[in-house]
């Protein structure tokens, strides 16, 4: 089955700096890679996703890159703000509608 | 709000109790999921239902019993749970499975379960 690894587990950055979270996956059949943000006590919310036919996608301060050959994908947050503080999860999905999640990264943005 | 509603939001139960978690969506989605979220662990996929048919049972103990009476409702029946089953249980759904282009998951707010 699929195995998704996520690093780092915790990340602290100064407000205005960039944050990068990296994930690797093992199953070449995975073709959909969403990123979720989960604030304390709240549900995971999709913030950006990328499909296997695309190498990069950007939405304002958030971008995701995918390297299919190396089986890794990354989340980039630029100009971080305190409200970006949360736990971020990556996931890998396939056409069978199965999703496998990383262990999460707790991001703290220091004002 | 994502349109996926879970009840109750919090549940405390003893190891001999029987309780049920409920998930409901009226988004027209056809696939529904149960996940377990424990501290410092990835979301663990428990069950998947596609068009009311169970398609995934991820080696979940029999003390967890899912039920999907229709494409809008999903239940998780609990009995004789253990303290280590205490966790946040999340329901999710996706539209128009199994089309790849539509497999964005929408999560409910979860049920925080404590087993004493």
Estimate the helix proportion of chain B, in percent: under 10%
Identify the most extensive interface between protein chains: A-B, 27 and 26 residues
Number of strands of chain B: 11
What is the general shape of chain B? globular
Structural category of chain B is mainly beta
Report the span from N to C terminus of chain A: 41 Å
Structural class of chain A comes to mainly beta
Descriptive overview:
The complex is a heterodimer of chains A (111) and B (116). Chain A is mainly β. Chain A is 0% helix and 55% strand. In chain A, the strands form two sheets. In chain A, strands 2, 4, 5, 9, 10 and 11 form a six-stranded mixed β-sheet that branches. A five-stranded antiparallel β-sheet of chain A has the order 1-3-8-7-6, with no helix packed on it. Chain B is mainly β and 116 residues long. Chain B is 0% helix and 58% strand. Chain B has no helices and eleven strands. In chain B, strand 5 and strand 6 form a beta hairpin. Chain B is globular and about 40 Å long. Classes of the chains: A mainly beta (111), B mainly beta (116). At the A-B interface, strand 4, strand 5, strand 9 and strand 10 of A face strand 5 and strand 10 of B.
Short synopsis of the structure:
The complex is a heterodimer of chains A (111) and B (116). Chain A has 111 residues and is mostly beta strands. Helices cover 0% and strands 55% of the residues of chain A.
């Amino acid at each position: 089955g699929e195995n998704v690894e996520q690093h780092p587990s915790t990340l602290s950055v100064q407000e205005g700096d960039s944050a990068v979270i990296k994930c690797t996956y093992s199953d070449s059949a995975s073709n959909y890679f969403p990123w979720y943000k989960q604030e304390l006590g709240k549900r995971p919310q999709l913030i950006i996703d990328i499909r296997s036919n695309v190498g990069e996608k950007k939405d304002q301060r958030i971008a995701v890159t995918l390297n299919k050959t190396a089986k890794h994908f990354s989340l980039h947050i630029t100009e971080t703000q305190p409200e970006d503080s949360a736990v971020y999860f990556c996931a890998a999905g396939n056409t069978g509608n199965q999703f496998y999640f990383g262990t999460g990264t707790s991001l703290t943005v220091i004002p | 709000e994502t349109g996926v509603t879970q009840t109750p939001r919090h549940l405390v139960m003893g190891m001999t109790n029987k309780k049920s978690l409920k998930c409901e969506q009226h988004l027209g989605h056809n696939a529904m999921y149960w996940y377990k979220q424990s501290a410092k662990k990835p979301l663990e996929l428990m069950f998947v239902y596609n068009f009311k048919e169970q398609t995934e049972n991820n080696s979940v103990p029999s003390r967890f019993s899912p039920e999907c009476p229709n494409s809008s409702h999903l239940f998780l029946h609990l009995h004789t749970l253990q303290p280590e089953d205490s966790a946040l249980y999340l329901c999710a759904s996706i539209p128009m499975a199994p089309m790849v282009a539509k497999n964005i998951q929408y999560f409910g707010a979860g049920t925080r379960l404590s087993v004493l």
